[in-house]
Design goal:
Layout (H helix, E strand, L loop, with lengths): L1 H5 L16 H15 L4 E6 L6 E4 L1 E3 L25 E3 L4 H10 L6 E4 L6 H13 L3 E6 L8 H31 L1
Helix pairs in contact: 2-4, 3-5
EC number: 3.4.19.3
Subunit structure: Monomer.
Catalytic activity: Release of an N-terminal pyroglutamyl group from a polypeptide, the second amino acid generally not being Pro
Length: 181
């Protein structure tokens, strides 16, 4: 919500959605949002009670979902996409994004993770990565006030997403150059 107030740079259309903590809604909603907007990038943000930093997740996992959601449901297969790869990495180089954002001197610590937790955050991330061939990102944030304010988190998300877009645009320039030769 804070990011929606702050916005992103002028050439970026920002669409903010709240995704319920429900496996079946995620399976329906994420593909629908990709189809509706055909975005350059989807960035998911989830609150983690265990997080003490703003954490950039590198990948989503397909199997191991045993926790019940807010509807007391759990996929019988315990996976996101039957037959899908075990792990899908984001096309965004999270190490580069983390270094760049850390160099900005914001009053927020940014770290990297390879395990989004095998619950709805990881499930959502994998579903989006699968849908987008890796053009998704997931950011875990700590609960408000533990230790960051909404304003601090909003500014951090703004900086992170702008760096992600920059990294994505530059990696696409390289890909396009290689295809032309």
């Amino acid at each position: 919500q804070e990011l929606e107030k702050l916005g992103l740079r002028d050439d970026v259309d920002l669409h903010v959605y709240e995704v319920p903590v429900e496996y079946q809604t995620v399976q329906r909603l994420i593909p629908a949002l990709w189809k509706k907007h055909s975005p350059q990038l989807v960035v998911h943000v989830g609150v983690s009670g265990m997080a003490t930093t703003v954490t950039l997740e590198k990948c989503g996992h397909n199997v191991g979902y045993k926790g019940l959601d807010n509807c007391r449901f759990c996929p019988g297969s315990q996976c996101c996409v039957e037959g899908g790869p075990e792990c899908i990495d984001s096309v965004i180089d999270m190490d580069t994004v983390c270094k760049r954002v850390s160099a900005l001197g914001l009053d927020v610590t940014v770290t990297i993770s390879k395990d989004a937790g095998r619950y709805l955050c990881d499930f959502t991330y994998y579903t989006s990565l699968y849908q987008s061939r890796g053009r998704s990102a997931f950011i875990h944030v700590p609960p408000l006030g533990k230790p960051y304010t909404a304003e601090q988190l909003g500014r951090a998300l703004q900086a992170i997403i702008e760096e992600m877009l920059d990294v994505l645009e530059h990696s696409e320039d390289k890909i396009n150059c290689q295809h032309e030769h």
